[in-house]
Amino acid sequence: MFECFRSGAGEVLSRDAYLADFRRVHASDISLLAKIERGQTFQEPGSPSWEAFATGDWYGALRLMEDERESTAAYFRDAAERGLAFRRIRVVELPVSPYLQWEMNVLRLRSELGERIRVLGARKIADLEGDAEVPEVVVLGDSVMYAVIYDADRKGAGARRFTDRGQVRRTTEEFEVLYARGEGFSEFFDREIAPLGPPAVHHPSTAAP
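Structure for DUF6879 domain-containing protein, as requested:
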């Protein structure tokens, strides 16, 4: 699965170019935004909630998430009016990393407001990851997809862009296979995330355990 991403192919875009291209395609007449997240730790400077989390202010991070409820709800209302479905596969290793505990709370809000999220345990895809992990993929509609690139600090650094419709179609089909294998988000959250206490963050500038 996802063979086209393993060769290093695709047009390399800087972070700014990727975000600009993403916004352009996202604003067009598309019906699907599909995303696979595999990494267990990232840095998200610029996100007030993440920055609070990264400095150890867990309850402040949760409060800042809630402050974004209305803007997030507005996004999903607009998406629904456009006929745009947002589907996400979140691959999870247990026990969850501090970052993933934070992100799962972000995704809980998004799930409540309209994003269709399924959780896939890393052990369930071990057969697919003999040589490399499942890539971080974003598919927009039927003509564009990206393999997201991160720097050594796990900050977003750009993407490789693919526009071959055959590759996009195959990737979407492969996404659906994995999506069907995943667990419903609320069930996973209630069992694995809700009982956890505040995560331990060992460095003020990173979410790494």
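The mean pLDDT is 94.
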